[in-house]
């Protein structure tokens, strides 16, 4: 309408000009400008724009709360599966491990931060993308990732399920970031109240220890500053404070930069058990004297305690472990030395202390008392050097399901320091040695239980360590794979290295072990060679006789043979009786006398054939395993329940072979 009236006025003016007048020199110009806003209108617009930008800041906090929480998932999985510990045993220092994780996480976080900045640029949010604010926005986002990422790392020790950790940490990040930023923003609206103003300033200072608050409050302050700048611009004044000033977001940036170092150092100290070593109180007092210790175990203890310089690759001296909240030690002052070229077997029922011993030797758990050394390096003071001389196959497979078998071997070969030119050859050697050729290029997540154990054993042997610890390596293996593994262990022994093996298979121990120790309630009950243990702790001999039929078509008469055995070997126990077969257990008699008496009466008793065998290692093991059961029952069972248990143990059990 204004433009139409201006055109009409210019037409009337030029119609009344002289004929020779220059029309371009005459005209009416109209300028239209709105009225200035009132104080109330200006305040309303400022609050509205600031509130919208504050909501945008909350959305950024919401989005950036999930990213750092996701960094802990893989760390928890590695800790639970013991892949992290296996990397430490293979030569990775904790500092290198955490720095590598941090660098990789920061690369991933940078992608998310770049997407946030790009979205702000696309929608042209001046409070975040103006020439003076875009640098501050980038600094806030990057320093938030720098500080919150190491803050999440200690949470990997708290959770055991990755999904639970992700949900919990995301909720914690959201709660801290949104609530702290929103509360301080709302309290800013009550600046006229001196009490609330002072409380708000104190709260702003205290909340700076949280990177979530530093990010959220920094974004809100940038939005408020832009609103003030727009108000000044309406009056024709230039107001552009430096966003990096201390009173603006400078203190937020400084705190986040410092928190990144602080939280990372705290995480490293937790990894090295600094707080546990300095604050945990371990009772230090005289220990009771060991009563009724086996002669062989006592001699080994004396050898370890008195001899200073020995050729033992592994040397364990009074090693003990008592878990927090318990009185009875899981491992009680064991002493043993393992020489080069020796395979030492460690057997016992579940809970006897075998895996706990391995965990102390590898540095997975702290030692309560005692010490052990590997190739002359103490596990208490030189654990990194111990790891360089040790290969470890844990009880449960510590493998990454996303890597192939060949990639696993390449990874651990590099960690072991194998020259790059030899890595492929070493990996192929391990694949052939353990029979993994068919599965080497498949991801480990598709492996069967037996192939997983073979891969774990191959990892333990990579790099030719002086000591190889194998915790039940053949669990779940088929007989052919078990033979492959036995041959691999024998090659390690022949190379002059040492092997410590735990197993529930006595056949495996007899095939591999040069010496054996049976653990009961955390201590050694016997120690020696297989034949020595059979001879010393065996229950005698097993005599099996097959009686032929005197008259065809009739059942064989077993009575004469039974009477002969009972009269000749008083106290013998008939363990089996079949159609024409008798089996007896003879405790007290010489092997020569048994053969002599049976051979002299062979024809008289119609014995078709017979055999005499020594007590098996399984029977020796079972005899010691009963001690573990009885001692556990005395501790755990209620007195009445213990009486019922003793009654059950007195019930005879008859066995027969069908």
Architecture overview:
One of its GO terms (cellular component) is membrane. There is one protein chain. With 658 residues, this protein is α/β, with parallel strands linked by helices. It has helices at residues 2-15, 39-80, 83-89, 94-123, 126-129, 134-152, 162-187, 194-206, 211-234, 246-271, 274-279, 295-306, 354-362, 383-388, 405-415, 423-434, 449-461, 479-494, 506-512, 530-537, 559-568, 591-600, 617-636, 639-649, and strands spanning 314-321, 331-338, 343-347, 369-374, 377-378, 390-393, 467-471, 498-502, 515-520, 523-528, 541-547, 573-577, 581-586, 607-614. The strands form 3 sheets. It has a 6-stranded mixed beta sheet, with helices on both faces. A 4-stranded antiparallel beta sheet has the order 2-1-4-5. Helix 2 runs parallel beside helix 6. 33% of the residues are buried. Residues 630-658 have low confidence and may be disordered.
